[in-house]
Design brief:
Layout: H1 4-18, H2 65-68, H3 73-77, H4 95-108, H5 110-113, H6 122-125, H7 137-140, H8 144-153, H9 167-185, H10 193-196
Helix pairs in contact: 4-9, 8-9
């Protein structure tokens, strides 16, 4: 009985192996799940969908993303078409923008700069190099475009925030930084005459 089992096993192997002759068949392949045969597909390096309106298509036909955004260079890069930094924020500055800027600043910037802009945030208290005070003379000389670029790409020890902060929110942060600077550098002459009486002396 013990000799029969090995013989049966060998015979079964021979039968199975003779079926794998490596020849091509004219018969269609058997598909247990044919769903994938008819799915929509695209070839490599092609857009899978039509780009939504007011978006920038990004693909192999565009060598530089900055070139794709050149139509509104001031908004997306903080620079004019000639490469000069824009002097003022290219969006309407209002109370809503400032509130949004304060909210985003508190989330992304206050850990280093602190909420007042003094450069003494929680990260600095742990021993990291403090950033400059927001109303430092050097910082005050930056144009709005330069501030936007710093938020976008970082500077020295400050990391880039282009992946975390959308373009509109970066400009909102710039507007709020300008508000912080004005709070510490403005004089009574900067206040409209109709409002000066409300300021205690």
């Amino acid at each position: 009985m013990l000799k029969i089992k090995p013989l049966l096993l060998m015979g079964l192997c021979v039968v199975l192996l003779t079926g794998c002759r490596g020849n091509f068949s004219d018969k269609p392949a058997v598909h247990l799940n044919p769903n994938l045969d008819v799915q929509p597909k695209v070839t490599a390096q092609t857009m899978p969908i039509t780009p939504p309106a007011e978006t920038v298509p990004w693909g192999s036909n565009i060598e530089n993303r900055a070139d794709a955004l050149a139509e509104d260079s001031a908004y997306y890069r903080g620079q004019t078409a000639s490469g000069a930094w824009v002097n003022s924020i290219p969006v309407t500055v209002n109370e809503a923008l400032l509130k949004r800027g304060q909210e985003r600043y508190d989330i992304y910037c206050s850990s280093c700069h602190d909420r007042a802009g003094t450069g003494n945030g929680p990260v600095v208290k742990l021993g990291f190099t403090p950033p400059p005070v927001m109303w430092d003379a050097r910082v005050l000389t930056y144009t709005d475009g330069e501030l936007y670029n710093i938020v976008t790409h970082g500077i020295r020890n400050m990391p880039a925030h282009d992946k975390q902060i959308p373009v509109a929110d970066r400009w909102a942060i710039v507007a709020y930084v300008r508000a912080l600077q004005t709070m510490h550098t403005a004089t009574l002459k900067d206040v409209p005459e109709t409002k000066r009486s409300a300021i205690s002396k």
